[in-house]
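Ops channel
N.P.: pipeline sanity check, posting one input/output pair.
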């Protein structure tokens, strides 16, 4: 069976303490990791979710990481809308940073 490429979309703001949980739960997924892109939309703050992007990229390989930081704080709806615009796959799931809820969407 050929698995399609998927994106996991994560909106965050000041959730640094949940990064390890997010990465652990992502690594536990049974979906082929080389078919997953993790896209994170973060609002700039004094507590960045990801401090060393390259280190995280190396940790989660072969999962691809796109990390976007916006200078302005936005609502969850605005962040989710931005994530959908950034997504290049037809199938994506929203994932909360503090729990691993997946809401699968297919376009």
């Amino acid at each position: 069976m050929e698995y399609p490429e998927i994106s996991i979309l994560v909106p965050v703001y000041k959730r640094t303490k949940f990064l390890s949980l997010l990465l652990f739960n992502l690594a536990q997924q049974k979906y082929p990791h080389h078919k997953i892109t993790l896209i994170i939309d973060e609002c700039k703050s004094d507590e960045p979710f990801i401090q060393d992007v390259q280190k995280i990229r190396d940790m989660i390989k072969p999962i691809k990481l796109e990390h976007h930081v916006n200078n302005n704080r936005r609502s969850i709806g605005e962040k989710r809308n931005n994530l959908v615009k950034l997504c290049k796959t037809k199938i994506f799931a929203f994932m909360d940073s503090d729990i691993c809820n997946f809401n699968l969407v297919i376009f």
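N.P.: looks fine end to end. The first helix runs from residue 19 to 27.
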